[in-house]
Amino acid sequence: MARAAVVIPSWNGAHFLGECLASLVPQTHPAEIVVVDNGSTDATAELLRERFPAVRLLTLAFNHGFAGAVNVGVAHALAAGVDYVGLFNNDAVAEPDWLERLIACAEAHPEAGIVTSKLLLADGVHIDSTGDFYSSWGWAYPRGRDEVDQGQYDGPELREVFCGSGGASLFRAQMLVEVGPFDEDYFAYLEDQDLGFRAQLMGWRARYEPTAVAYHRMMGTSATLPHFGRYQAIRNCIYLYVKNLPSPLVWRYLPKFLIGLALMAANDVRRHRFRAIARAYFDAALHLPAMLRKRRQVQARRRVEVEYIDSILVHPLPPTQKTLVRMARRWPLGSWRGG
Q: What is the CATH architecture assignment of 4-224?
């Protein structure tokens, strides 16, 4: 039987963790459950000690972000010799066979370094993600978000995806060793897409397993921090584009990427929040030399052809960017909107 661990990063998430862990501890496939306490000041430690004594608690002195906490948990799991590492949000709940279904898919597809699950919203009706994709506009996005789940993405022809969300996915240990850790410069948001992009560049594939089901309270933790998600998403989408896209595609899609950034900035100005978000652009520019250094390392390890990467990109504006899609219709962008 494959050895597995499930890593849950948590920052002041004790009010979510009880339900989360109650769904993970009795999974039908055994696994070590690892909570990485990211400098919390709540009752996380007490909760685990009193209700979940078998859960491993790794405590950090301060908040290292999602990426930093996950790296600590993954390093612990790899040192224990596991075959697979599951990542799970502290504000999510899994069906009892969630892990078993993911591992069965991974075992059947040795080319897959990542297997992601059907992640529904807490209502059990609407989709959070059925796999993540990357658009040539420079945005990663979850397929099907906010749609009513009617099995529309469950067909066997829709199982290949670009990458998987760090909120409810399985990662092959061999892939993690080869590709390397999550990039802690991202702190939170898109660090899972960054790792997935690097995995694709090195020849690993990603799959979606619709029978592995989990439920997610959207932004249960970060919703308490005004503009945090927006700042992180803008800054990190620039990191993602600069660091991972092969050079011919960087130049091919640069006009679309810049138009997309302009649309986002115009939208933030219209909503009177640009001042709060402007630091994302400044910080991305400030860290551009560091990202270019990382880019050289990433591209030097690329094993697949540029044409393959281009073939797995999605070329219209991401459907999750509804405001930008509406704005683009009013701009004289011609064929840029769709391709």
A: Alpha-Beta Complex (3.90)
CA 23 to chain centre: 21
Say whether 219 sits in a helix, a strand or coil.
coil
Place of tokens 């909760």: 47
Global confidence as pTM? 0.93
Q: Judge whether 197 and 244 are in contact, CB under 8 Å.
A: yes
Contact between residue 317 and residue 337 where contact means Cβ atoms under 8 Å apart: yes
Count of residues making up the chain:
339
Residue ranges matching CATH 3.90.550.10 in the chain? 4-224
Q: For every one of its 339 residues, what pLDDT tens digit does the chain have, with 9 covering 90 and above?
A: 999 999 999 999 999 999 999 999 999 999 999 999 999 999 999 999 999 999 999 999 999 999 999 999 999 999 999 999 999 999 999 999 999 999 999 999 999 999 999 999 999 999 999 999 999 999 999 999 999 999 999 999 999 999 999 999 999 999 999 999 999 999 999 999 999 999 999 999 999 999 999 999 875 555 556 678 889 999 999 999 999 999 999 999 999 999 889 888 888 888 888 877 889 999 999 999 999 999 999 999 999 999 999 999 999 888 877 666 666 666 555 444 444
Compute how many other C-beta atoms are within 10 angstroms of the C-beta atom of residue 310.
16
